[in-house]
Design goal:
Helix 2 runs antiparallel to helix 4, helix 2 packs parallel to helix 5 and helix 3 runs antiparallel to helix 5. This protein has one domain. It is mainly α. The termini are far apart. Helices cover 73% and strands 0% of the residues.
Length: 116
């Protein structure tokens, strides 16, 4: 989970080096937030984030998605531990969906009507 201590956040923000899965998750989550802040919290962009996180190890990304993928690659290369990268990216994906996508979809369901 990305909820590391404030002290660790300051160090990680300064060094951009993750010493464990929590710090790695924090860095990737921060890049996801920057990406959406820049390109907008719209379904298309959220779907792009999901695609990058869920298929990161299997794809070459182009366009705006490549910006996020490059940021994630930099974080992976600068980590100071050996661990399951795909597992951590999956954790980021789950938390992103829970905190960002699900509330967005709930609001659109209320606004536009339910499908199910």
């Amino acid at each position: 989970m990305p909820y590391i201590t404030q002290k660790d956040r300051k160090r990680v923000d300064r060094t951009r080096v993750a010493r464990n899965r929590g710090e790695f998750n924090y860095l990737v989550s921060g890049e996801v937030k920057k990406y959406l802040d820049k390109f907008g919290y719209r379904y298309q962009r959220m779907d792009e984030v999901i695609e990058v996180l869920s298929q990161y190890c299997d794809r070459i990304f182009t366009g705006d998605q490549a910006l996020l993928a490059v940021c994630i690659e930099d974080i992976i290369e600068n980590r100071d531990y050996e661990d399951d990268i795909e597992g951590t990216l999956h954790s980021v994906l789950l938390e992103f969906y829970r905190r960002v996508v699900a509330p967005y979809e709930d609001e659109k369901c209320k606004t536009n009507g339910d499908v199910y």
